Amino acid sequence: MTFPVRALRLCTALLFSATAGALLAQKAANLVTFRVGAQMVLVPVTVTDHNGKTVEGLRAENFNILDNQKPQQIVSFGSEDAPCSVVVVLDISGSMRPILASAKEIARAFFGTANTDDEFLLLTVSSQPSALPGFTSDTAALESVVDFARPGGMTALIDTVYLGLSRMREARRPRRALLVLSDGMDNYSRYSQGELMRVALEADTQIYTIILDNPSGSVPGATVPFRPSLAAKPIDQARQRQGPSLLDQISEKTGGLHFHVRDGAQAKEAAIKVGQALRNEYLIGYQPPDSGTAGKWHRVRVGANLPKVNVYARAGYYSH
Fold first, then answer.
1. Hey, which of 43, 50, 256, 314 has its CA 20 to 30 A from 153?
2. Residue 226 in contact with residue 216, Cβ under 8 Å?
3. What is the C-alpha to C-alpha distance for residues 100 and 107, in angstroms, rounded to an integer?
4. pTM here?
5. Which of 136, 163, 140 is nearest to 30 (CA)?
6. Tens digit of pLDDT for each residue in 62-83?
7. What integer pLDDT is reported at residue 36 of this predicted model?
8. At 36, phi and psi to the nearest 5?
9. What value does the mean pLDDT of the chain take?
10. Quick one: which of 270, 253, 274 has its CA closest to 205?
11. Which residues contact 187 (CB under 8 A, 6 or more apart)?
12. Category of 292 on φ-ψ map: left (φ > 0), alpha (ψ -120 to 50) or beta
């Protein structure tokens, strides 16, 4: 589904039709479940070098995989550039006012890495989650909506990511990811960190996060650097620490990349690396061991027999 630029501009004024009450009504049971069947566990894997650049051209023999610390035989392997369905979560809450321009640049840079078969759903973070009606491949229209966004409101970041995972059930592409662009703060969500982590681990979605440094000194025209943590109340200092930590953990456990950026150059570089990672994933399949108990957590660990590389894969899955 695509939307003309004018229609998307009008939709911006209506972001979101979903209210907080409707959000809470969407249960984890509606989320897309991680791909675990009776015959196969499929694990998307990204490999990067020490500079964060994706490593291409690897084969099945370059990998090893453990399920609950037991070696598994790789029975399927692929590395084609499959079309992606990506939910982009853009934080436009009041705390983002000094750095929203940089966040918009990241979004535009990321859309620039897309291929014609990708589809995107844009969600915005404020006092309530907001989203466009559906997935679209019209990146020019999405960029127009991003340009039109204005900062304001509290920050329901966890609720918005939760909603993004729920909306992923509408996706039509075989490869699925969620990208979060935020300073990591959350001060208005109704879902807890634990609830979000649970559904993230169950969802068949890799979560990528780009966290922007948010000092007031980054505002154009400011000449004296300012550290918010030096003036913030203790409860706000705790939120500043917990938010980015949660996003890092979710990325690590779902197999996505996570970045902390301080300026526009780093931000654009991170966006491009995320796009390249989505374009160059490996998909490893193995037969799941008999756990004997439905709902049991299986810890998955993927390694590579190459020096100086980083391997990103989801941390595990719940048996069916």
1. 256
2. yes
3. 11
4. 0.83
5. 163
6. 999 999 999 999 999 999 888 9
7. 57
8. -135, 115
9. 83
10. 253
11. 154, 155, 236, 239
12. left
Strand-by-strand arrangement of the 119-125 sheet: 130-131, 119-125, 84-91, 175-182, 206-212, 258-261
Burial class (CB in 10 A: 0-12, 13-18, 19+), 294: exposed
Q: Which two tokens stand for residue 33?
A: 């479940």
Tell the residue number behind the tokens 């209210």, with chain if given.
19
Chain position carrying tokens 């084969």: 59
Q: HEC profile for the chain?
A: CCCCHHHHHHHHHHCCCCCHHHHHHCCHHHCCECCECCCCEEEEEEEECCCCCECCCCCHHHEEEEECCEEECEEEEECCCCCEEEEEEEECCHHHCCCHHHHHHHHHHHHCCCCCCCEEEEEEECCCCEECCCCECCHHHHHHHHHHCCCCCCCCHHHHHHHHHHHHHHCCCCEEEEEEEECCCCCCCCCCHHHHHHHHHHECCEEEEEEECCCHHHCCCCCCCCCHHHHCCHHHHHHHHHHHHHHHHHHHHHCCCEEEECCHHHHHHHHHHHHHHHHCCEEEEECCCCCCCCCCEEEEEEEECCCCCEEEEECEEECC
- On whether the 5-29+82-278 domain is CATH 3.40.50.410, my answer is yes
Which residue type, as a one-letter code, is found at position 84? Answer: C
From the CB of residue 319, how many other CB atoms can be counted at a distance below 10 Å? 17
Residue with tokens 């989650």: 129
